[in-house]
Amino acid sequence: MSTTQQQTSTDTQHVDLAITGMTCASSSARIERKLNKLDGVEASVNLATEKASITFPSALSVADIVATVERTGYGATPLEEDRARGPVMTHDVVGHDSLRLRMIVAAVLALAVFVLHMVPPVRDALGMTGHWLQLALTVPVYLWAAWPFHRAAWVNARHLSSTMDTLVSVGTTAAMGWSVVALLTGFSHDMYFEVAAVVIAFLLIGRYIEARAKAQGRSALTSLMELGAKDVAVLRHETVSGAWTEHRVPIEELEVGDRFVVRPGEKLATDGVVVDGASTIDASMVTGESMPVEAAVDDEVVGATVNGHGRLVVRATRVGAETTLARITQLVEQAQTGKAPIQRLADRISAVFVPVVLVLALVTFVVWLLVTGGDVARSLMPAVAVLIIACPCALGLATPTALLTGTGRGAEMGILIKGPQILESTRRVDTVVLDKTGTLTTGEPILTDVLTVGALAPDAALKAAASVEAGSEHPVARAIVDGARERGVEPAGITDFTNLPGRGVRARIKDVEVSVGKPDLFDRVPEELRAALASATGTTVLVGWQGTAHAAVTVSDTPRESSAAAVARLKELGLTPYLLTGDNEHTATVVAQQVGIDPQNVTAGVLPQDKFAEVRRLQDAGRVVAMVGDGVNDAAALAQADLGMAMGSGTDVAAESADIVLVRPDVQTVADAIGLSRKTLRVIQENLVWAFGYNTLAIPLAALGLLTPLIAGGAMAMSSVLVVLNSLRLKGYGRGTR
Length: 738
Hints:
By secondary structure, this protein is of the alpha+beta class. The chain contains 25 helices and 30 strands.
């Protein structure tokens, strides 16, 4: 591992920095502007990934870049570079745990303060002692738990800007300051400790939810690389003896041209070409091909795929960042980084709202001071009422409560929505790109057809095939044996079993030698069977004896029972379905027809980077794309799509790259997820409109002295209740609701 400071030309260098302390889009924009003001510097700062990518002249150093970011008010740390995937950032466990601790402490103390203030029997029994207890409980919430808000507000103020953090800091400071002065001087019995505590607690809950969503997104890159092998058995040529000997070395030491051994069940260490041996390769995790592929001498193989039954010797052709897996990783990071930072509605409005509120509070104080002839206490009350009524309690509840309710209902329906920023994409989605293997289909090969010629009965042909295949570990063989038993056909005993790598298998049943495999095992193949081979939608093997093929057995990956109904529902929602798969064109077209997708919207034989490119092509054509997939090969496309949706029955990488995870292996949940996401977004927008509208209407009343701080606090609490009740409507969302 080494710091990511690399020479990009004779005069420029490049560095990737992990940025801490950013809370909104204005934070990342401010850092970017500050860096780009430096001579020769080109910087891009991404809020979602919390990373800055910077090219700078050799006259500057990494320390200069870091210092510039720190002077702006944020933290910066050079990222580490991994040989296989470039600069990466590990999850900030310390920061995440700190936020979680702040949230828990604030929630517990705020609940206690709320009970002390709002429950009459408790409040009346304690009297003034209750007020002092509220002060003691609120101080750690205000000073410690809310410190990130206060710090961000100060940083914003230094740069003459404001965000929601400014609203939180100013509002809670007003409530806290008024309450402390009132308690110490006794000039008023109206105190608002619960306002400060509850606002901070709810906003920390929302901030924690967002942080978890970001962490899950970043972990997709780590999960991708963990799919690869950690070490490799390299063959070294001994100059003295002339023999080839195995040496187990870390994957980082593997070089292009090295020969390495892959035993049955092992992962291929890197991309390469087979130089010795034959086997089958399970490439579904990377390429999306549903059936295992044959690998023999001179065949290309892909790193991180799994070797089947045979021993292979492979010559490495690509290593490190050049491998297929590393390129998928880079595409995922590119897609995640390329997404425009979410410019939250609350932040956009608060940029104008906060300065206006501060000016109004000051104007209110000055005007009342003039009207009352210099009565500071009477003038302070309406000014504080303005600040309290502007305190964003309902605003802070608007997103977290709707998100918690919506995601809770989604979990009941098998839908996991990762964060509020995801919902903005669902409203405009007009195109759904569906992966085939594991999404529209089951992803498991099963026996689908037995075709015979002449007088041979299908069960007799199947019995012969299953008997011979029972001696093989090939996935197609297992599917034939399992399928035969499901049909009540039990394999017979065999002798003289022979495995023919890349061709098939052979064994004796009683005194007859039966072959199962490719056409080249037979001297004669009837035309009916050749036609079956040409039109098969899966993998077809021939069964025969005495040099003649007598039957064809087909194993296929079949559509899920719910796929056709799911595609119909997507069309009802106004969405255009596309099918994207690594399988062959014939198989893809047949599956598309079975589930109701227009053949013109089918793209077959695509590699992972092709899926990524296809999503980009649709986006460039003006479409808003939702991608549904389940494998590593889908990860980059899921990250690039406007809305990524992963089948929970698939890989962890796909789930982490996606925005929404569909826990149940039911494609109908795709339509449910889009409908629920749209509904949740509408509720969040309604909450935000109410929260800001309430402030806008109530502030003039407070400025005119028609609302005391006590009434202002009560009105603010009622506003929060309405926001919560509106969010709870999501509990009634049902299947098929739009």
